[in-house]
Amino acid sequence: MKLQTIAAYVLLVAADAFLMSAELHTDDSGILAGMVVLTALFLGCLHPQRAWQWGLLVGPSLPLSDLLFGTPMKPRDAMLLVLFLSAIGMIGAYGGVLIRKTLAAATGLSR
Q1: How far apart are CA 26 and CA 52, in angstroms?
Q2: Cα(61)–Cα(63) distance, rounded to whole angstroms?
Q3: Mind listing the pLDDT tens digit for each residue in 9-53?
Q4: Which of 3, 50, 68, 89 could bond 58 through an S-S bridge, CB–CB 3.0 to 4.6 Å?
Q5: Who contacts 16 (Cβ-Cβ below 8 Å, separation ≥6)?
């Protein structure tokens, strides 16, 4: 495995742990959704070949923290939240890919 891939997964685990902790200590869902987008965006810039994974791995960490450590919610509500946050994460991840490709084209670099 490349160092870039290992760094991306280490960052993913750290960001998910931070997001899970923040979810348990705050009720500000807009800030948390923004943090999901920014985390996925950064991971999409860092490792664009796996952009589809970042949205699917970052988004569900918030409902997972409630399920494991907080007050569980209804299954229907949890599924809707997982779908919504995964979609937001996908938007962020592919936005990161777009930013990386745009910067690569502007600077003339292939990577």
Answers
A1: 28
A2: 6
A3: 999 999 999 999 998 888 888 899 999 999 999 999 999 999 999
A4: 89
A5: 57, 58, 61
